Fold each of these.
Amino acid sequence: MSKFSHFNDDGRAIMVDVSDKRSTIREAVAGGTVYVNPEVFRLIAHGEVKKGDVLAVAQIAGIMAAKKTSDIIPMCHLVSITGVDISFLPDEKRSKIDIVATVRCKGETGVEMEALTAVSVAALTIYDMCKAVQKDIEISNVRLLNKTGGTSGDYTSGF
């Protein structure tokens, strides 16, 4: 493909045609952080949040979000995802939970948006389940950590 654009010759939005691209194995890893106060961190860690197991629900929400990314991001292709894994890395000392989402597919376009969406929705789910206890929960640093596959090559962030 020589031209990547989300606009046609009339200046109107289009979805990029990837039909000429070669199908390859692709993987994207995204990350983000949720900061809570020490009390909320303790409630999450001990399974005492009244709405239920925060991280279990956030994990399912993140997986579901990866599968539905093309429904909410207008120019995103529907991708046949072959795997989604979401990890939570709690840090009690800093009252934070790092989220890492890994998404894989075999296709003509990558899964960066799916990984970023998975992290974002997992973080929002943590917020939703804990907002009755803490309103000022902070979600930050959602970013692509790395990606492999495709014609644009591999990418690794500085994080």
Note: DSSP finds four helices and five strands in the chain.
Amino acid sequence: MTNEKGSGFEASRREVLIGTGKLAAGAAIVGVGASALINKTANASSGPPPTPWGYVKLDPKEIAQSAYDNWYKHYCCYAVAEAIIAPLREKIGGPYQNLPVEAFIFGHGGTVGFGTLCGTLMGAGVATSFALGKKDGEAVLRDMMAYYSEADMPIFKPNNPKAHVKNTNISESPLCHISVGKWMKKEGVALKSPERKDRCARVAADIAYQTVVLMNKVHDKTYVGETGSPSAEYGITTQENCTECHGDDVPEPLAPKA
């Protein structure tokens, strides 16, 4: 019979103790890793915070030039949204850092070329919604819808224009088809002309500029919205320039039930 000292049993016991230590250390490492993974998963599953995400005052002139440049990357909706959100991403960070504005490229040409709401207004709506939330964001956007329809644009003069633009026009509508169509007729150019493209880039700058002017007023608590909801006034979702397209055949809302 072998003495336990120096025996295989003693060696085995030492190996077991060492092995147990390794196992414990490994378990601790796994535990830390699992904890981090759980926290990461929990953070991911909680999703982004509710809006508004916050706003700091921006320079309208800088934003306008950025929107003009952005138009030549991904057109109107992206141009305005990215011009406003990019500096907020830098100055505020947080959830703005995970907001891919490229997701809103579809707004170009009045939504993938269908000529409905001008993409610059969609881009303004994206920016105001995230930065200001529903109440203030929608109030600013209503004023921007009115501004777009009433302003003689383009106003913006780019630092390095890519084409010569002669004419401005008042669209009397927030619709891309009407706004662009009226201007093209006045300018005497086609849709794919350099002049039409530069006109739309300049309009993107105009809308980004004015949107920031209003957002700055919200920040300073001096903003008072001026534009009400047409749907509340007319009893149907609408813009206020129907007859230009519909003629006498303007859709009439049903009378409310008593």
Note: The radius of gyration is 29 Å.
Amino acid sequence: MDCRGQGGGWRSADTADVGDAGLPSTPGFLTRGITDPASHYYTRLFVDAARAVDAARTWTGASGRPIVTAGASQGGGLAIAAAHLSGKVAAVLTDVPFLAHPLRALEVTDSNPYNELAEYCKVNPDKADQVFGTLAYVDVVNHAKRATASALFSVGLADTITPPSTVFAAFNHYAGPKDIAVYPYNGHEGGGTPHFCAQLAFLRQAGLRCSPAGSP
């Protein structure tokens, strides 16, 4: 999914964030519109993810085929949220998912993007309750509690960006059939190529073929 407004950093993109009201925030995306769930950047992004599933289902090449949501870090969080909000996916591949238990993340890491929250609350201590009230709407743990498709998680135990305890929080609360691949020596890159092979095996076991559209 082309995440709105995020082009210009490590990758290019074409989609503008037309819903951004320009409210004060720290550099990055996590605190944009953070004082209200209706204006929060990730509210818009989660809705985009659910609509992306709907769009995929209307594509003629996907007719009769199962939809799998997949992603890493931010994409891992979106994969879970899209599975919950759309309710129309066959499986979820979520690697080192971001936005799970953000309050816990702030307790154990000072890495960005979670550090954006600390910087914002440092300047706006009177808004801390609003910040974490808003984050409850996009906390991936709360979406995991309502997602029922089969899911394969991955976690790197040396990850300082999405700390392992936050990933396990999402995994432990996930409502559907689930498994997790644990990589003791990996950081935020997760399991790399070995994990990609594990994902293919997971899909095969779930009866989901990985053939291109148009092939048998």
Note: Residues 121 and 211 are 47 Å apart (CA to CA).
